[in-house]
């Protein structure tokens, strides 16, 4: 009908958020890429069994570090009033949340993918064979756990940022969330090494997938509370 304005759906924020995250969070991304790739090469040239047993365990830790650019963007946007503008433009808090979560997972995929390719290349270049154990550890723990802990870190970090007053340095979500995010991976690593050292190899193999399930359930539970905990007023600039 003429004279009636129809609100259009706001354009996708994924592209611009990804570019901003890779720019403002380039230190985290480069650090995650470089250190994980160096570790992959060091383990890959040692032996296929060493690479298969250790590399998947450490992979989630570097994935969390590399994905922190997403939280940097979210924190800066809330502090500077960008989120307030997006809300006024018609973007829902849930969409803003999911947008940054997807960007965090995308940055994690860059780190995990690059390190895995480099590590597998090092294994093959030194004449070591690829094994089913490696495929199992990467497929059932390394890659899924990396995605799960990054989702956990991003989710906790955005809730923390939205529900708290701004802080700087190591007391801010950006300063502490990497430690919070890697905690599930470190606990899993400790459990696996402890069980393997006591001879419970079957139990050690099951710890990884079980940890992935537990972290994923926590993430899903937190995401389901977005509508309750992250109301529009919580997303406004505190300044």
Count the helices. How many?
10
| Relative strand content | under 5%
Q: Can you tell me the overall shape? A: globular
User: Helical amount among residues, as a percent range?
Assistant: over 70%
Low-confidence stretches: 1-7
* DSSP E strands, number: 0
Number of domains: 1
Which secondary-structure class do the elements indicate? mainly alpha
- Mean pLDDT value: 82
**What separation lies between the terminal Cα atoms?**
42 Å
Main sheet attributes: strand count, strand direction, barrel closure:
none
Please write the string of helix (H) and strand (E) elements. HHHHHHHHHH
C-alpha-based Rg, rounded = 20 Å
Commentary on this structure:
The structure is a single chain. With 239 residues, the chain is mainly alpha-helical. It has one domain. Helix content is 78%, strand content 0%. The chain is globular and about 60 Å long.
List keywords for this structure.
239 residues, mainly alpha, 10 helices, 78% helix, 0% strand, globular, disordered N terminus
Outline of the structure:
With 239 residues, the protein is mostly helical. It is built from ten helices and no strands.
Helices and strands in order:
Blueprint: H1 14-24, H2 26-44, H3 48-66, H4 69-80, H5 82-89, H6 93-125, H7 132-163, H8 173-197, H9 201-223, H10 226-229
Helix pairs in contact: 1-4, 1-6, 2-3, 2-6, 3-6, 3-7, 3-8, 4-6, 4-7, 6-7, 7-8, 7-9, 8-9
